[in-house]
Amino acid sequence: MGLLTEGQPLPWDETKQLADHVRQHGIDQFLNLYHQLLDRKGDILKWGDEVEYIIVKFDHTNKTAKVSLCAQDILSKLNEKEANDPHNVKSLWRPEYGAYMIEGTPGKPYGGLLAHFNIVEANMRYRREEAQQLLGPDEVLMTITNFPRLGCPEFTWPVDQPTPKIGPSRSLFIPDSAIYKGHPRFSTLTRNIRQRRGERVAINIPIFKDENTPSPFEEDLISIGGDTDSLNAALPDHVYMDAMAFGMGCCCLQMTFQACCIKEARTLYDQLTPLCPILLALTAASPIFRGYLTDVDCRWDVISKSVDCRTRQERGLEPLTTDKFVIPKSRYDSTTLYLSSQGEKFNDVPLVYDETIYNKLKSADIDHQMAQHVAHLFIRDTVSLFNEKVHQDDTVEMDHFENIQSTNWQTMRFKPPPPKSTIGWRVEFRPCEVQLTDFENAAIVCFVVLLTRVILSYQLNFIIPISKVDENMSKAQKRSAALTEKFWFRKNIAASTSKTANVNVNSSNDDASYIEMSINEIINGKTGEFPGLIPLIHSYLSSMEVDTDTHCTIQQYLKLISRRASGQIDTTASWIRRFVQDHPAYKRDSVVSDEINYDLLMTADGIRSGRISCPRLLGDCLLANSKTKETIPPAVQKVYSCTP
User: Collapsing DSSP states into helix, strand and coil, what is residue 303?
Assistant: First the structure.
């Protein structure tokens, strides 16, 4: 969730008055740090993952599942180990937006040894077990991207009611008790985003039209306190949501990589950018919102709209009179600009940036692309400011810069080193949806890490026009995109004719050498056209000394990725959708009832724990243990069988 400054949050009217102050000093801080660390080199590869979790409380008598608002109590206990011995912990824990969410990372980053791939999954299991043992007997720590009935009546435990007229959210569906209260950042962001926008956020996701889904699909919002704003915002045949919690209450899987120098960091930022929509489609895991099956498989646009603080003028709905810019995207969206010299010519989308800030950066010897990047980030206002952090020493602090940097939530994030730190230049890979099992999450992480090694070792070029990346991001969220959509991807990926071990890598001086390919073709290869990402990884590994255990682990991970890309096994979203549609209580009306939700999450936890075998989701990678039959309700045997 970004920067967690301690202090007393300022009300929005004071925050707004200080927006230019934060911008000015944020730029000064960036300049001071940039020039101090521009020539920093020689940092070794370090990387780590961030996994977000939802705490679910099951009521086995009434067959319901709710989110448990106990994250603050759990975190206080989890953080005791770090407080007592910060250098010797196996895991680190941080709050997330929801009062039912926590975030876990490894205690220390991993390094350049291939053997580290052998401990990623084990550390994820350790984290899960560490937190799970602090929960109640009917509570489960789950890696689900979105709680399916978030925003439905009585979806929290303890039960609470929305307050549409008061509070930070003023939502028709979300009680403010669902927001984490252990840090003021979350409620402050919620309030300030709504106030800056001038109205509630408006999220409309197309409903999945099943046989008995009403047409048009429209809800009675007046009966639950709907006002003119909500009635005007809700679209027919869409699931309407109105609060930051619907987006920031989702979970994701993120990775951060430390580069050896700023040039390498900029290269990784650019080369990973075209891979963001591919990994989003491959990890799709959220087809249900507010208790309805929708016609999308991913969370991305929901989060984007949930924090869209643009005014009507900035959205182009009214003429510019008091605001400076018409801004095409929310502050949570896809990357808009490449940073390396190789990527500059592919920045084909008109960029909105602050020319005054750009000129200041250029006059301070910041290169054109980096100056544009920072000036683009800084078209945004601060939406959370603490009284204790208004006045800072710009020569040694970075809070004003990070204030705006950390609330530009893009698919990639370029991260300068913190002041007076041993940490180097980093990039953060942010599109992936979290998966049900530690095995899947470890597979995704190791796959992306290996891709970074392949890119740098073979000096590959995946860059395509930014406009095509945006187009791919839209496609990636569609229902069954991993199977049915074609994505723009670079065909000729080497700068000159080359052969990498047993894989021919096409090369060309033609910068327009990109074509539409399926996820299967991108991951597994297309004969005569593209070698495939997994064959490239195999080629890389064949040139390395890999011990037997690590080799077996990596092969299992790559097999999962390969089969999911080919359609031999389901994405998480497809599996969830199939589960709902096959459930005997489903009425083919797009509604995911309490009963279906309970069975879905119980099954997901059974798959995660190994009690239930699910070849349709995992292939033959994970097998169930002997407890399987005890956990399968007879009424849903077909659903639970997960037959591929």
Answer: helix
| Euclidean distance between CA atoms 132 and 123, whole angstroms | 14
Weakly modelled stretches of the chain, pLDDT under 70: 1-5, 495-512, 622-644
Residue 46 forms beta bridges with which residues? 258
Coil, helix or strand at residue 412: strand
d(Cα 501, Cα 508) in Å, to the nearest integer? 19
Among residues 568, 565, 635, the alpha carbon closest in space to that of 598 is found at: 635
Distances (CA, A) of 406 to 4, 35, 356: 10, 21, 21
pLDDT at residue 620, rounded to an integer: 87
**pLDDT the model gives residue 628:** 39
User: What pLDDT, on the 0 to 100 scale, is given for residue 630?
Assistant: 40
- The first and second tokens of residue 120, run together, are 């990623």
**Nearest by Cα to 540 from 556, 558, 526, 516:** 558
pLDDT tens for residues 313-371? 999 999 999 999 999 999 999 999 999 999 999 999 999 999 999 999 999 999 999 99
- The CA-based angle 255-478-201, given to 5 degrees, is 75
Q: What is the pLDDT of residue 7?
A: 82
CA–CA separation, 458 vs 271, rounded Å?
12
Q: How far apart are the first and last CA of the chain?
A: 37
Helix or strand (DSSP H, E) at 489 = strand 487-490
Q: How many CA atoms lie within 13 A of 81 on its CB side?
A: 15
Do 234 and 240 contact (CB within 8 A), yes or no?
Answer: yes
**Inter-residue long-range contacts of 223-231, CB under 8 Å, 24+ positions, other chains counted:** 224/162, 224/164, 224/172, 224/173, 225/162, 225/164, 225/165, 225/172, 226/164, 226/172, 227/164, 229/199, 229/200, 230/172, 230/200
Q: Please tell me the pTM assigned to this model.
A: 0.96
Number of other CB atoms surrounding residue 548 within 10 Å: 7
